[in-house]
Amino acid sequence: MQEKFENVKTVIPNGFWETFNSFMNFELISFGNDQNRIVITAGLIILLLVSLFVVKLVLRLIRKIYTRKLEPDEKLRFLGAYNFIGYLVYILVFVSVLSSAGIDITLLLTATAVIFIGLGLAMREIFQDIIGGIYIILDKSVQAGDIIEVNEKVCKVFDTKLRTTRAVTRDEKVIVIPNHKFVTDPVINYTQNYKNTRQFVKVRAALNADVDQIKNILIESAKSHPKILKKPEPFVFFEDFGEDALHFGIYFFISESFLEPKIKSDLRFVIEKEFRKHAIKFPYPQRDIHLYKTEKPE
């Protein structure tokens, strides 16, 4: 073994090692006093880059192994937490490499804190977004795959990052939402508790209509739609007697809240067809006008 090592040394000239050591120990940045002096060398930069690159490969491998059997929505939720954990791992590796190189981390963190205080005053909203991102990731109030309503727009979340959350609306437009909005503004989450949501369609029928027939038509129309769940079963409320109509509501459950407008539209088409088939009239406002004949005064 000693002979092989000597052979390697003879193959690589001594001048190469001297040049390599000089390059790795070359000072790029140095600051601080003599007692607490921080020196950034070319070797330290290379070690940091290599370490972060290796961590990136390991994290990517873990992500592929863990997500290969997950459903699309579950995969999106995992990636939101994965991104946050990735940031923490990078920070820990960065600090560990600096500490192993003999750099006083306490001094570095103190200097960094001062810098962040200055940046925080100048970029307050950006730091609010980052804090909001950490909050929603840990609290799980908004996750990838959730159906939410923000600023009177219903959208589906597909990516949660540290500063922003991205969602797509029903007309296929992407909304980039600053994360502090989820902390300071009210947000409706349709799928926070359950994936299934209850929806309804209002129906008006003529005053002389058969209410039992209408009830059966509405329930059968809802059951015929493939996107409306069979369990829980659809049900009908007879909601009110109007001046010119009977008011009904057909209530049903769906598992794809993002498709709510289309499902309701399809159901209205079916109900309209069934009403015409059974000669049930849709009401329209009526006004009775009475004319009286009066005699002209002589």
From TrEMBL:
Pfam families to which the protein is assigned, alphabetical: MS_channel_2nd (PF00924), MS_channel_3rd (PF21082)
Keyword Repeat (UniProt): no
Segments spanning the bilayer are 38-59, 80-99, 105-123
Q: Does the keyword Repeat apply?
A: no
Q: Sorted alphabetically, which InterPro entries does this protein's record hold?
A: LSM_dom_sf, MS_channel_C, MscS-like_channel, MscS_beta-dom_sf, MscS_channel_2nd, MscS_channel_C_sf, MscS_channel_TM-2
- GO CC annotation: what is one? plasma membrane
Superkingdom is Bacteria
Which family is this protein grouped under?
Belongs to the MscS (TC 1.A.23) family.
Q: What is this protein's name?
A: Mechanosensitive ion channel protein MscS
Please name the source species.
Answer: Planktosalinus lacus
Taxonomic lineage per UniProt? Bacteria, Pseudomonadati, Bacteroidota, Flavobacteriia, Flavobacteriales
